[in-house]
Amino acid sequence: MSTAPQALPRSDRSRVLSTAVIEAARRLDLGSSDLNAIIGTSQPSASRLLNGKYFIPEGSKTWELSAHFIRLYRSVSSLVGGDDELARSWLKSANQAFDNRHPLDVVKRVDGLLHVCEYLDAHRARV
Questions:
Q1: For the CA atoms of the chain, what is the radius of gyration?
Q2: What digits encode the pLDDT tens for the residues 35-46?
Q3: Each residue of 4-15: b (16+ CB within 10 Å) or e?
Q4: Residue 123's pLDDT band (cuts 50, 70, 90)
Q5: DSSP class of residue 96?
Q6: Burial code of 22-60, b = ≥16 C-beta within 10 A, e = fewer?
Q7: Residues 6+ apart with CB under 8 A from 94
Q8: Phi then psi for 82, rounded to 5 degrees?
Q9: 76, 87 in Cβ contact below 8 A?
Q10: Contacts with 13 (C-beta within 8 Å, 6 or more apart), sequence order
């Protein structure tokens, strides 16, 4: 008998990622306008997602970007010791590493989201 964990069914995986995105957005005080720009979904879909009426489809570009958004949240949260207020402040403050732009503005482009994730990962490695 195999004791390996069973993979979640596709619909459950969508629910789990969607719930994680909702929680990260809530903790970072991001609305549907910010979220739709970050994860590449429409404004109405982002609004429905935040209201629990939409699940991110597995295998979509939105799915991939959402996974990176969660990576960003986990990294910044780790660096600030889980203090959501500090995480929000970091995200919305000018940063020399991003040409004095706010990380929140940078992550609204795919290359920016990846760059910010890499930046945070590099700083987490030092901790």
A1: 15
A2: 999 999 999 999
A3: eeeeeeeeebbe
A4: confident
A5: G
A6: eebbeebebebebbbbbbbbeeebbbebbeeebbbeeee
A7: 100, 101, 102
A8: 80, 5
A9: yes
A10: 7, 58
Tokens encoding 93: 């403050």
Instruction: Compute how many other C-beta atoms are within 10 angstroms of the C-beta atom of residue 63.
Output: 19
DSSP 27-50: HTT--HHHHHHHHT--HHHHHHHH
pLDDT digits (tens, 9 = 90+) for 86-112: 999 999 999 999 999 999 999 999 999
Residue 113 tokens, joined: 């989201």
The whole model's pTM is what?
0.88
Element (H, E) at 116: helix 110-126
Residue corresponding to tokens 């030092």: 126
Token representation of residue 117: 């994730």
